[in-house]
């Protein structure tokens, strides 16, 4: 990460605000961050396929995938008797769509700023943003407005102005802090004098340059001074929640002894309009402190600045830990050693974890079939180290098998081209479907196999070197198939225990389809 160029003269940049904005707009990492954040926000309103789209986005970033899996496997979300979470699909089901989405946004923000030289200040402001986001999500669950989940997003970015100033002009940040502490001045007043605008306004300008949706930016504007009115519009409610969440996060992180008095003051201002009382506030604080700690831990952020919170809190279990049936942790596919083909050497453990995940999802009453399909597909994709995987289902209107869900490299482009007639030539796919035969090919260049590959397949995936085809057949009627491939041959093959787990995954999905 670069730092502002001192060659900029006062004539070119009239104020610290303009100098900082110019540098932020020139910084190569930040526009990319803006695009990524805008993409995650857009996924929120993407409709039926939002879970799949979020999973695709996370899987496209190895670092983000690892952090979400680490969060899913922390004490709060996984008891000592629970199986390790090894797929993003399972993480979304376990933590909830909005929790994973908000965590992904926070992780994107932290990854861009956590390596600043002025670690202490930047970390402090990032933790405040994380804490505010958790508070916003709690408020969203209590909200009475449609699409209230956006509260967690606006709460996360309420503090982005402070984060940016601490990251890119630490001297200015410290001068503002000193004036606030020594001159009994509010941070907004000190920032206006030295920066040229408030932290909030500076954050709004930065987010505008990242092309973040206006609904989010408008929700960051300051609240009017004096008594607040109960919000009638969702926009007004979001503004109040963002301000409340950021203020509460600041108090929670404060080392001052008068935190109780500050909580009371906060309740007097926001209690009536946001329908809060002391018990609700206490419940939110208790939950948010531990969730913030777990989220920060998954991002390698220290929370020593979070005042009054024990370093670790043991899980509340009635049975002593030594008597619980333990399950060993599975090394995630992203960290596992691999064969030359790309297949993880611990494929069996990963497949077994996937079978357990599917079993738990089937036992839940509120699972969706589309989410289960994605979970099975992702399990096969990650456990066996494929580069592209898809499930095709029969489309009665066109009498073709059409790719419905896909993961992996260039998944969208390959998904569009992956379709073939229900009745066709005796190629690899037709033979697998008609015979209900699971096919695992180590080398697609073998002469006996090459002549079975249809022209559309050779054109779409010319570099595939090994693959798997799993037909989905119910009462002797083909309804679709799984397909996955690698760009390397798979000389290691598929042992019997792995084959049994692959067939179990397929059977679980067929049972779910038959159930409804």
UniProtKB/TrEMBL annotation:
HDOD domain segment(s): 30-226
Pfam families on file: HDOD
SUPFAM superfamilies, alphabetized: GAF domain-like, HD-domain/PDEase-like
Domain of life: Bacteria
InterPro entries reported in the protein's UniProt record: GAF-like_dom_sf, HDOD, RNase_Y/CdgJ
Entries under PANTHER family matching the protein: CYCLIC DI-GMP PHOSPHODIESTERASE CDGJ, PTHR33525
Name used for this protein in its record: HDOD domain-containing protein
Lineage summary: Bacteria, Pseudomonadati, Pseudomonadota, Betaproteobacteria, Burkholderiales
């Amino acid at each position: 990460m670069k730092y502002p160029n001192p060659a900029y003269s006062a004539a070119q940049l009239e104020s610290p605000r303009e100098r900082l904005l110019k540098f932020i707009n020139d910084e190569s990492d930040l526009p990319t961050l803006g695009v990524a954040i805008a993409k995650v926000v857009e996924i929120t309103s993407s409709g039926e396929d939002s879970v799949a789209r979020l999973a695709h986005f996370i899987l496209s970033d190895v670092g983000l995938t690892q952090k979400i899996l680490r969060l899913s496997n922390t004490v709060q979300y996984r008891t000592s008797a629970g199986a390790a979470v090894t797929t993003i699909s399972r993480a979304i089901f376990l933590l909830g769509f909005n929790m994973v989405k908000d965590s992904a946004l926070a992780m994107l923000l932290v990854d861009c700023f956590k390596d600043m030289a002025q670690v202490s200040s930047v970390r402090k402001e990032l933790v405040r943003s994380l804490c505010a986001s958790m508070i916003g999500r709690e408020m969203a669950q209590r909200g009475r407005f449609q699409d209230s989940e956006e509260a967690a997003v606006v709460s996360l970015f309420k503090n982005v102005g402070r984060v940016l100033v601490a990251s890119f002009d630490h001297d200015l940040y410290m001068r503002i802090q000193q004036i606030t502490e020594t001159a009994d001045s509010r941070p907004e007043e000190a920032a206006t004098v030295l920066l040229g605008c408030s932290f909030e306004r500076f954050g709004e300008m930065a987010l505008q340059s990242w092309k973040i949706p206006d609904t989010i930016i408008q929700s960051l504007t300051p609240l009017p001074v004096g008594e607040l009115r109960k919000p009638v519009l969702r926009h007004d409610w979001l503004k109040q929640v963002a301000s409340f969440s950021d203020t509460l996060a600041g108090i929670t992180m404060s080392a001052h002894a008068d935190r109780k008095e500050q909580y009371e003051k906060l309740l007097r201002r926001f209690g009536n309009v946001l329908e809060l009382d002391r018990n609700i506030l206490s419940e939110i604080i208790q939950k948010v402190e531990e969730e913030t700690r777990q989220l920060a831990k998954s991002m390698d952020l220290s929370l020593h600045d979070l005042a009054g919170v024990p370093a670790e809190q043991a899980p509340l279990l009635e049975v002593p830990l030594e008597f619980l049936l333990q399950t060993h942790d599975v090394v995630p596919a992203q960290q596992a050693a691999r064969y030359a083909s790309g297949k993880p050497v611990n494929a069996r453990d990963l497949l077994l974890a996937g079978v357990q995940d599917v079993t738990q999802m089937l036992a839940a009453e509120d699972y969706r079939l589309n989410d289960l399909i994605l979970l099975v597909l992702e399990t096969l994709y990650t456990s066996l180290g494929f580069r592209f995987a898809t499930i095709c289902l029969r489309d009665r209107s066109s009498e073709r098998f059409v790719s419905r869900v896909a993961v992996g490299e260039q998944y969208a482009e390959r998904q569009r081209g992956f379709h073939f007639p229900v009745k066709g030539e005796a190629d690899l796919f037709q033979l697998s479907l008609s015979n209900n035969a699971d096919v695992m090919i180590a080398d697609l260049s073998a002469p006996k196999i090459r002549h079975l590959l249809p022209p559309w397949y050779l054109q779409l995936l010319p570099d595939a070197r090994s693959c798997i085809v799993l037909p989905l057949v119910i009462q002797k009627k083909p309804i679709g198939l799984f397909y996955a491939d690698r760009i390397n041959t798979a000389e290691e093959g598929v042992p019997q225990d792995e084959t049994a787990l692959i067939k179990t995954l397929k059977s679980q999905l067929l049972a779910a389809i038959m159930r409804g």
